Amino acid sequence: MGLVLAILIIGLWLSHLVYTLMFVPVVWASPWTYMHIIVQGYLSTGLFITAHDAIHGTVVKGRRGNNAIGTLAAFLFAGLWYPRLAANHHKHHHHPADAVLDPDYHPSNNLVIWFVTFMWRYTTVWQLLIMAIAYNLLKLRVEEVRLWMWWIVPSFLGSFQLFTIGTYLPHRKPHTSEMPHNARSMPLNHVLAMLACYFFGYHTEHHLSPGTPWWQIWRVKERRIS
User: 222 lies in a domain?
Assistant: First the structure.
């Protein structure tokens, strides 16, 4: 199932992106414009979730297959370098919300400062170069407003969604003794949890069971509260 969902997410992301870039004009007065942005942003989030599950070895059996899928998904998401992403994510799980050892955490508790720092830590010169090359090649065939609205803006929204639901809200202070792994979870609501960030809002459950794929985290949530 993990491989099927990974292929589905990558396929939907790519097909919707190509369709909008090639055939859908940006019409500011049309509600479909904003629907396309939301859908592409959500599918971009799915790319990262796929890479994230590959880090935990839950997409397919075997490290080599997971690395291949994770590398592809991370690259498509925003030119991310998968080995660096994986190394930092393992540090996050070993030292959640540690101001020194957790690369995803920022002690300021300020949403904007934390988000800017978070993005800075994962941005590399090679990533910027790759994105710049892709942008300049694509604009030879696609008008720039479409590149911005169908690709860049959704990618940013996906990044902010992942940060807010998967990092800031779960790991912000105060940290209490009732928060395993310094992580809190959103209330039980499977539909909302799926829409919010592929069940990533059930964040305590993810830290308690990192080997559970995203599409089964809801089961961990139900077992935990039953």
Answer: no
Q: Where are the alpha helices (DSSP H) in 79-168?
A: 82-94, 111-122, 125-138, 144-147, 153-163
- In angstroms, the CA 49 to CA 97 distance is 20
Residue 33 within any structural domain of the chain:
yes
164, amino acid identity = T
Any domain includes 140: yes
pLDDT given for residue 221 in this prediction: 96
185 neighbors 209 (Cβ within 8 angstroms): no
- Residues contacting 11, CB < 8 A, separation 6+: none
Summarize pLDDT for 52-86 with one digit per residue, the tens: 999 999 999 999 999 999 999 999 999 999 999 99
Distance CA 136, CA 198 (A): 32
State which residues form the domain around 66: 2-214
In this structure, what token pair is assigned to residue 22?
A: 């090639």
The gap between the terminal CA atoms of the chain, to the nearest Å, is: 26
CB 196 within 8 A of CB 185: no
What's the pLDDT tens digit per position in 111-153?
999 999 999 999 999 999 999 999 999 999 999 999 999 999 9
Q: 30 CB contacts (<8 Å, ≥6 apart)?
A: none
Count how many domains the chain has: 1
CA distances (Å), origin 33, targets 29, 40, 145: 8, 11, 12
**Percent of residues, the chain, with pLDDT higher than 70:** 100
The answer to the question of residue 116 being in a domain is yes
Considering only CA atoms, which of 36, 38, 12 is closest in space to residue 24? 36
